[in-house]
Amino acid sequence: MVSQRSWKKFDSDNGEQRLSGYTVFNLKYNHNINKNFDITVGVDNLFDKTYTATNTYKDVTLVEENKFLINEPGRYGYVNVRYSF
């Protein structure tokens, strides 16, 4: 679980905006197949929550007049296989 309270302090002169709080849930499972192999499967942002973790700054915009927030990725899964010797 990853959680953040809403922003109470921000620099509006620098283009920052108030951000809402959020909580996202991540799942991860690792299994040792044998002495040399293990596999990890996981899902991040299990409930596909839309949230923003960082603010926009005046000098980091694509078009100077447009201030916008960039959301974090939605739900995604992954599989990792590791071999060690």
Q: Which terms summarize this structure?
A:
85 residues, mainly beta, three-stranded antiparallel β-sheet, two-stranded antiparallel ribbon, 0% helix, elongated
Question: Topology, please?
Answer:
Layout: E1 2-4, E2 22-24, E3 27-32, E4 37-44, E5 76-83
Antiparallel strand pairs: 1-2, 3-4, 4-5
Work out the strand percent: 25-35%
- Separate helix tally: 0
- Give the % helix: under 10%
Element-level helix/strand string: EEEEE
- Total count of domains: 1
Overall outline: elongated
Low-pLDDT runs of 5+ residues are: none
| Integer-rounded radius of gyration | 19 Å
The major pleated sheet works out as: 3 strands, antiparallel
Question: How does the helix and strand content classify structurally?
Answer: mainly beta
CA-CA gap between termini: 33 Å
Give a count of the beta strands, DSSP E runs of length 2 or more. 5
Oligomer: single chain
**Spatial strand order of the main sheet:** 3-4-5
Mean pLDDT: 87
Condensed summary:
The chain has strands at 2-4, 22-24, 27-32, 37-44, 76-83. The chain is mainly β and 85 residues long. It has one domain (2-83).
Structure description:
The protein is mainly beta. It has one domain. It is 0% helix and 33% strand. The chain has strands at residues 2-4, 22-24, 27-32, 37-44, 76-83. The protein has a 3-stranded antiparallel beta sheet with strand order 3-4-5, with no helix packed on it. A hairpin with a 4-residue loop joins strand 3 and strand 4. The two termini are 33 Å apart. The mean pLDDT is 87.
